[in-house]
Description:
The protein is mainly α. It has two domains: 1-31; 36-92, Orthogonal Bundle (3-methyladenine DNA Glycosylase II, Chain A, domain 3). Helix content is 57%, strand content 0%. The protein is built from four helices and no strands. The protein has helices at residues 2-29, 36-44, 57-66, 80-92. Helix 2 (36-44) packs across helix 3. The protein is elongated and about 75 Å long. The termini are far apart.
Amino acid sequence: MLIDILKAVAVFAGLGIFLGVVIGICAKVLAVKEDPRYEVVLNMLPGYNCGACGHPGCAGLAGAIVAGEASPTLCKPGKQDMRIAIKDYMETTPGPDGEIVRIKL
């Protein structure tokens, strides 16, 4: 009986080690690389998360600006100096792929 318990413990320990290694490998291979400009643009926005821009909060608008799909002028509570700062930052900082986003104000 003790041998059966030890076999079960060994099987589960081996299975746990194997699955831990598989999860570790998958975490490295399937990792999503985030554009570092996203966090900077998000911090430049006012942070009201009002949704007046048509995006789900400031995080959604920041993602759209970094992707080149939106303009900071969509931010209704944002001031003009914020819009200019975002435009200057996006036009002078290349993304991970080396592309620069052009923004019209």
